[in-house]
Amino acid sequence: MRNVAVVGVGVFPFGRHSDLLYQEIGVPAVNDAIEDAGIDRKQIQSCYAGTVSGMGTAHDIINECGMIGIPIIRVENACVSGTNAFRQAWMEIASGLSDISLAIGIEKMKDSSMAAQGGGRIQLEMKAMMKLPIVSTFSIMGLPGYFALAAHRHMNDFNTTKEDLANVTVKSRRNASRNPKAEFQNPMTVEEVLNDKMINPPLTRSQCCPKTDGAAAAILMSEELAKKYTDTPVWIKASSMTSSYVEEQFKNLISLPNIENAKKAFSMAKLDPKDFFNNGFAEVHDCFSISELLHYEDFGWCKKGEGPKMLNDGIPEIDGDLPINPSGGLLSCGHPLGATGIRQVAEVVYQMRKDKEVAKRQIPDKNLNLALAHTMGSPIMGFTSGIHIFSRDL
Amino acid sequence: MKREPLFIDGKLNAGKCNDCGVVRFPRRDYCNYCQSTNISEYLLGPQGKLETFTISYMKPMIGRMKPPYPYGVAIFLTDDGQKIHVIGLIDSQEPFEDVKIDKGLILIEDKLLIKFKMEAD
Fold first, then answer.
1. Is the pTM of this model over 0.90?
2. Superfamily per CATH, domain A143-211+240-391
């Protein structure tokens, strides 16, 4: 396979964009990525668009951007849709099919229910679902519930406290206060997080990522072209995905389906999780406060049960040994399903390049050699996990 | 793909792979570990243990459950010691003080929903 680099990225601010069309939030992200890459848009040979509910949006965006004619492929994989679109663009260049490919992530969620976000499937199959015993039982549990179950067991087994969980949101908001493109930029205290509206104990509202509107784009290139267009390419060292079925996950609630995927990704990049300390950073899928703590443990960055200690020791802070979610993550940026995976890639590229976009939240130079971006999702009843590992040097 | 009943004789209708021995609930045509189709009926419960729980203060995505309602994951042990994790509603009244992690529970038979009742302290 050929080496592939990310050369340009763009992000449209995450938030509420009720009065804007999909293409009105998607086009600026794509144009920013093209300008950032310094290429002529005629050179783009293919487009992969991660979106759950945005049927036809990629055609609208590409049409507005003057690139109609190239293959446009919509990718849907729940919360991993953006990561998946990025992976498809990587595969296309790695295989030699294209030299330059565009990955878009886009979602509008503010004015719709999660049932509608499910691509309409939940509404279409509701009658059938309610008659199928096991599915009707799963239906009582929303996504916050699944993670609340994991949180309660973690609290029981490792004496994790409500305050430990709230600290994840406190760190997230602190970082997002330096990110003008995050939905929530106001810092919060532990008390404010704990006194917020209860969703599923122990998780309060601000420990659950919001439904958000947003878009992001990335331009990927072959090694030969990347070296021609930029002095600061960001290399893709690993792209890894796994799947599992929801009933399997109850077997070990405190080890989400990412453990196997992380092993695959680190192996592909020929790295050990410990190689990230004082050397790298990560954007992980902090869909709920407990999720981020579980990822520290499941990716091998600390022992099982020691996620809260790693956080309380300051390791994942922007100036810590292993900065995690410098953007503010899903909890504060918001989580437009298809856009999140590409927004993470944009954060990786901006940070590694020391771009003005991240001037207020710049990670120190020693930690810019490696990066990991991760999303996980539940396409109705199953789980999927997507990880990319990046490096500054080939 | 066949729709199997949820309960048989008050127990959960699971499947055991005759080739690798793994028990899976709900029962399916293929074993997810060795891909065998040699699956036999294996009944779970009715007694289990509560692994974890939460309480929903939100309306469910589909269905008519009225919040707040507790639900959790129960563990049912097989004869050879496999732990089978099953999610279900917990039959309890506010403030749900009887619902505790690692406490015993018993299945309540139902056509559609898996439900548990906590055992007395």
1. yes
2. Thiolase/Chalcone synthase (3.40.47.10)
